[in-house]
Amino acid sequence: MRRCKKHSNGPSRLTLVIASLYSKVRSGQARSTGLPQPGERVLSSLVADKTPMVAISFGNPYLLQSFPGIRTYLVTYGDMPSLQEATALAILGKIDIVGKLPISLPGLYPRGTGIQLHAVQRAVANSSSQERSRE
Which residues pair with 20 in a beta bridge? Predict the structure, then answer.
């Protein structure tokens, strides 16, 4: 995770943070993120500052319960390279984002909540072809 302004001498204003998160589900530990404390502090700071962020969980889908202020959250349910590559393509708008939660995130989202976003490149191509057909 890139360090935020409070934790480095980096840019004074971040335009977007992509937080790549990995944590295994820890049974028997209520609201345990499984993230190292420094990572938890940085993420909490970014959320508190309302920094624009896309958080991606490559493991534990329940991470969002510890950071309910995160507004854009993707869950991959694994850390395989193919999932990481697909997530990068999706964030860049090169492939569709589709999915529904197979679990519920208590207090946040019920099972079956999801989104469908079309790839930007495909949407632009469809828009261009529609304009040409009107001419």
Answer: 56
pLDDT bucket at 24, cuts 50 / 70 / 90: confident
Hey, what are 85's tokens?
């590559």
DSSP 8-state symbol, 101: -
Residue type, 39: G
Q: Indicate the domain borders of the chain.
A: 5-134
Q: How far apart are CA 41 and CA 71, in angstroms?
A: 18
Phi, psi of 74 (to 5 degrees): -115, 145
pLDDT tops 60 at residue 82 = yes
Q: Can you tell me the distance from the alpha carbon of 109 to that of 100, in angstroms, rounded to the nearest whole number?
A: 10
> Chain-centre distance of CA 56, in angstroms?
3
pTM of the model: 0.74
